[in-house]
Design a protein that fits this description.
The two termini are 28 Å apart. The protein is α/β, with parallel strands linked by helices and 317 residues long. It has a 7-stranded mixed sheet with strand order 10-9-8-11-12-13-14, with helices on both faces. The protein has 9 helices and 14 strands. Bound molecules: ribose-5-phosphate.
Length: 317
């Protein structure tokens, strides 16, 4: 696209937007995104975007409803200001776990949220590790789905741990864990988890060997940390040596920090798709950035180049 590229951000994760701009070498667009006295969101784009190729960076992370509404209103503002194309860059897509009607009289919230963005005129979406890849189909516009895996795997490969087994904390994460195991030349084990409530889980059994191993438990997100800390306790009880945790999205809600603090892990590796509140920062938490990856994807989208080629390049790094 020969149009000017402009990058803006809402207030959910300004830090990653700054890092993306730094990587690309552009200035972050000037916009006001704050609140009116009554709590309503106020958006004002302070520069001309007519005919521009606009990218709006906004993780729909907690406070999730505010983050979503900011993004809706920003897209609406850009559309009405005659931007040529609007891409929502959503490093973390909230509501993604509500992606089906698993009981009567419940919404498919992830679809409703996707509808909100498309109804105000977003043209494309760029996101990272959707809870389920099928969520791409909730949008009838192009979705570029990036994976933080290469960034986390590269970090872990450099640690060069001996006797490593990658563990999926539930069956749903087994494909993700298999990819890590293959890339890290490690063994694979799967925890058979049962969800008891939205905050608690119970482990039924473990498929695979973890005794005497360094274990890396991988998941797409840590919300209340129930799933991952249950898995950590289980593998430790089964004789695992060192326990490492890795997840793309550090939602860290409810009792997550108490659970993680008590889990006696070697390290937790997450990415910057969601900012870590100061109160949740810990020496055992290592934050890796996916900003470079998103910056590269933005450049490729802008220049109409292949985004999937990026994965090959990253895995080769
Ligand atoms: C489950 O399907 C997800 O991949 C995560 O394992 C889960 O949502 C994490 O939630 P929590 O940390 O509250 O157990």
């Amino acid at each position: 696209m020969s149009k000017t590229m402009k990058i803006f951000t809402g207030s959910a994760n300004r830090a990653i937007a700054d890092r993306i701009c730094e990587h690309i070498g552009v200035r972050l667009g000037d916009a006001i995104v704050d609140r009116f006295a009554d709590g309503e969101i106020r958006v004002k784009i302070n520069e001309d975007v007519r005919g521009a190729d606009v990218f709006v960076v906004q993780s729909t992370c907690p406070p999730v409803n505010d983050s979503i509404m900011e993004l809706v209103l920003m897209i609406d503002a850009f559309r009405r200001a005659s931007a040529e194309r609007i891409t929502a860059v959503i490093p973390y897509f909230g509501y993604a776990r509500q992606d089906r009607k698993d009981e009567g009289r419940v919404p498919i919230s992830a679809k409703a949220v996707a509808n909100m963005f498309t109804s105000v005129g977003v043209d494309r979406v760029l996101c990272v590790d959707l809870h389920a890849a099928q969520l791409q189909g909730f949008f009838d516009i192009p979705v570029d789905h990036m994976y933080a895996g290469p960034v986390i795997k590269r970090y872990f490969r450099r640690k060069n741990l001996s006797g490593l087994t990658v563990v999926a904390p539930d069956v749903g994460s087994s494909k993700l864990a298999r990819g890590y195991a293959k890339r890290l030349d490690a063994g694979l084990a799967i925890v058979d988890k049962r969800r008891v409530s939205d905050t608690d889980t119970e482990v039924m059994s473990v498929i695979g060997e973890v005794k005497g191993q360094n274990v890396l438990i991988v998941d797409d997100m840590i919300s209340t940390a129930g799933s991952i800390t249950q898995a950590a306790k289980t593998v430790r009880d089964l004789g695992a040596k060192g326990v490492y945790l890795a997840a793309t999205h550090a939602v860290l809600s409810g009792s997550a920090m108490e659970r993680l603090d008590a889990a006696a892990i070697e390290q937790l590796i997450v990415t910057d798709t969601i900012p870590i509140a100061d109160a949740n920062k810990r020496p055992y938490i290592k934050v890796l950035s996916v900003a470079r990856m998103l910056g590269e994807a933005i450049l490729r989208i802008h220049h109409a180049e292949s985004v999937s080629r990026l994965f090959d390049d990253m895995e080769d790094d």
